[in-house]
Design brief:
Length: 345
Amino acid sequence: MIQLASDNYAPLHPEVLEALAAVGSEPAPAYGADPLTASLADVVRLTFGERAQVYPVLTGTGANVVALTSMLPRWGAVIATEHAHLHTDENGAPERVGGIKVLPVPAADARLTPAAIERYAADLGDVHRAQPLAVSLTQVTELGTVYTPEEVRAVAEAAHAVGMAVHMDGSRLANAAASLGLSLREITADCGVDVVSFGGTKNGAALAEAVLVLNPDAVSGVEMVRKASMQLASKQRYVAAQLLALLSGPDPLWRRNATHANAMARRLREASSAVAGVLVTQPTEANVVFATVPRTLAAALREEFTFYDWGPGEDPERVEVRWMCSWDTPREDVDAFTRRLAALA
């Protein structure tokens, strides 16, 4: 069965596996007091800026909860799009665990604009309203679109002007940077982002995410929040080793993996959009293709390929689907899928 369901399906990259094996069998201090975590802190400063701090965690949801809880007081709220993963796909974790109100705004392409800040800024100081003290952008967005640095900077400037902090859910940050041909710093710290939930699991790692504090003035008690949120790993060196494998070197693995995944998605889009009955619904700016197809066609494809339904199509006989490529997606799999798609259509 060929999978196009999610980049979470992909295995560990061999270089990440080698990095884990290289940790060795000797004891080491627990809870991040080990040499590998110290090395990761150095690499993060080189990558994101001298003020950057790294807090390895185990899951993307955990990263979002730790980041936002440390950014907001008990009465704080976060502005996000209606599509935001922290709003739709984390089982209410920000609300349940962090006590954070999520303020969703409509966004056809899943990108926030300064208008989102304007929409809620009038609530600041109103004792009857949850206080919108942070804004969260997802990069790459849940619809596969990518914020340009100018778009991120515009949101950050609008947020900072009224006292809001800026969080970025970067579960696919690597794919965005590869798509734009920029460094990780150029699309985060240089644009005014205060805190990033950095994703490793979708890009070749396993149980390796991180809260990156780019502006230490924007958080409070992040170490305590991480522990209280059950995201502090005792054998943190194994998490740090994976993140080091992704971030280190002049040609880092994060970029190589993301570049390949993005290229496979572009190949898939080009071939599938030429098939009768297939309507691509979103720009393919990273590693995912959204399209509507007849429901009968989707059902037939699932006999050989895995992928998710995303939403209803233009009429009851059609459905919107999501086809996602990963660091390990072979060109042959993409071509086999598009050939079968054309044959069935």
